[in-house]
Design a protein that fits this description.
CATH class: Alpha Beta
CATH topology: Rossmann fold
Radius of gyration: 14 Å
Shape: globular
Strand content: 5-15%
Largest sheet: 4 strands, parallel
Number of domains: 1
Structural class: alpha/beta
CATH superfamily: Response regulator
CATH architecture: 3-Layer(aba) Sandwich
Number of strands: 4
Strand order of the largest sheet: 2-1-3-4
């Protein structure tokens, strides 16, 4: 079983999009043997997914129900094969705080497409920002799905 964990700040937006998109795509493609999780660098269980993201996810038919934000910690890091962060700042924070093995924590855009792009935080920027971020993440998740499909 391979485990991929997506990380953003509060684990209520970008990492949730990535996690739920990958789960959905893997199920549609019949790819087994991959566990998908998410966490945040500043996440707390009382945080909620806000309405704009719910609307975007609902429109795309992506399930997010039952999600509880969690903080990235040593256990999540050690049980993950790869941790994919939304921004370079997230990578740097995880590396400085948890000292993972080299290469375990990567930028999502770099892992998916060999690009070095931060995925902006849409919180507080309205529904159109969530839609833009969703499209960007979806592009990367499609590439990761293809990679995982070819590995199986």
């Amino acid at each position: 079983m391979k485990k991929i964990t997506f990380v953003c700040t509060g684990n209520t937006c970008r990492s949730v999009m990535a996690q739920q998109l990958l789960r959905s795509f893997l199920e549609k493609e019949g790819v087994n043997g991959v566990e998908v999780g998410s966490a945040g660098t500043a996440a707390y269980p009382h945080y909620n997914i806000i309405g704009d993201l719910k609307e975007v996810m609902d429109n795309e038919g992506i399930n997010y129900e039952g999600h509880t934000p969690k903080m990235i910690d040593r256990d999540i890091l050690e049980t993950s094969d790869v941790v994919l962060a939304a921004t370079r700042a997230h990578v740097e924070e995880i590396e400085s705080r948890l000292n993972p093995p080299t290469g375990k924590v990567q930028l999502l855009s770099a892992y998916a497409a060999g690009e070095v792009w931060d995925i902006e935080d849409p919180i507080g920027r309205g529904k159109s920002a969530y839609e833009r971020v969703f499209v960007q993440i979806k592009k990367y998740i499609e590439k990761i799905t293809e990679r995982l499909k070819n590995e199986n």
